[in-house]
Write a structure and sequence with these properties.
The protein is α/β, with parallel strands linked by helices. The protein is built from 8 helices and 16 strands.
Length: 374
């Protein structure tokens, strides 16, 4: 299930450093690790063969989250809350139904932002009536969060006025402050012919670049993906409704067909956690989270492993590993004078629980799932 990503704040760029710089007499509130949950592309109202259970998956996600013992500080929905419709009344009905369903979450601090399915047809009017402003900023335990609306403009642009607002908002924080940006479309040109880009995304990234600790989370592409623009990592979340193919992998973009033998393949959520300078990423799937006996176990979702999981240390982020024979990674070559990246990964085998330890060094090995350095 595309419950998006579970993110621990101490794993965000700069979060650990901001704590270290604090003096002894300063408040300790920011020391506490916290995590938030990212849900994306729930597409409430969708009906079709790509997900025969479309009318229940959002409710299942709510139930899954509620049954885990350790609850996130807040939950953010990164767009496409509802599925597009030209019928204004149906659009409002879907948004009202969505609000009602997610109101059952135990976590009451919910953050929303629109996707093009929610906002492109009416410049966000219905969305604003149900959810409020399409872009805003807030602070939580030492992290500055910003949402960027790149969907209300049907051209997929952020626009001059919002970029000016963003620049002004970021001037209020220091250049070393940890900053998290939520957006729907990717801010870089992932695959423009599939609408996987933001028209003025490069201008938005230019605003972010002077800040040394920025992390971007987005949705839209219905799959996990990791990308770097200079020092800024961009991480997409999987969808709650249906997966889409890898960018450019097929002639036409369309949902991956539903597989009755593996009904939730490609739908899942992610945990990102950092201890010191180490970051660990775990990809989790609906089939395992709904397995009897797993509800509420593992605290921070550690026991809810699905398929093959790549665990990375020393600040590396890895994509999932489709099978035992496809462990090939692409790493950017280290800058002159920098330390060669060294990762120790474990590939899990869900069938019998056995593992294979592999010692990998940053080189030019290639895998379709990218590795990014944070």
């Amino acid at each position: 299930m595309g419950v998006g990503g579970v993110v621990f704040a101490s794993g965000l760029a700069g979060a650990g450093e901001s704590v270290k710089r604090r003096g002894r007499g300063q408040p300790s509130g920011n020391k506490r690790d916290f995590f938030f949950l990212q849900l994306s592309d729930t597409h409430w109202g969708f009906q079709g063969p790509p997900n025969p259970q479309a009318d229940t998956t959002l409710r299942q996600a709510v139930a899954t989250i509620n049954q885990v013992d350790l609850q996130p500080d807040f939950i953010v929905f990164t767009g496409d809350l509802t599925h597009t419709t030209e019928n204004r009344d149906v659009r409002h009905t879907r948004m009202a139904e969505f609000r009602k369903i997610v109101s059952d979450l135990r976590v009451k601090d919910l953050r929303f932002m629109p996707g093009e399915h929610d906002a492109a047809l009416d410049a966000g009017d219905a969305y604003k009536e149900h959810f409020g402003a399409p872009y805003y900023a807030f602070d939580h335990k030492g992290i500055h969060f910003v949402t960027v609306d790149n969907v209300s403009d049907p051209k997929g642009a952020v626009g001059d006025a919002q970029r000016d607002w963003l620049a002004g908002d970021l001037k209020k924080v220091g250049k070393d402050a940890p900053i998290v940006v939520f957006t729907h479309r990717p801010l870089f040109d992932l695959y423009p012919s599939w609408d996987w880009a933001t028209q003025d995304g490069a201008k938005v990234v230019d605003i972010l670049l002077p800040y040394r600790n920025v992390t971007v989370f987005y949705g839209h592409i219905h799959q996990e993906h990791h990308h770097m623009t200079d020092h800024i990592p961009h991480h997409s979340a999987k969808s709650l409704m249906f997966p889409l193919p890898a960018p450019g992998s097929v002639a036409k973009k369309q949902p991956i067909p539903w597989d009755p033998a593996h009904p939730f393949k490609g739908l899942g959520y992610r945990q990102v956690e950092e201890k010191g300078k180490d970051m660990k990423l775990e990809e989790l799937g609906l089939a395992e989270t709904w397995r009897p006996g797993h509800h509420g176990q593992g605290g921070r979702y550690r026991e809810l492993l699905s398929g093959h999981v790549a665990r990375a240390t020393l600040g590396c982020l890895l994509g999932d590993l489709p099978n035992r024979d496809e462990l090939h990674l692409r790493a950017p070559k280290p800058a002159a004078g920098s330390q060669q990246c060294r990762c120790l990964c474990r590939q899990e085998d869900r069938s019998d629980g056995s593992g294979q330890r592999l010692d990998l060094r940053g080189d030019d090995r290639v895998h379709r799932a990218e590795r990014s350095f944070l």
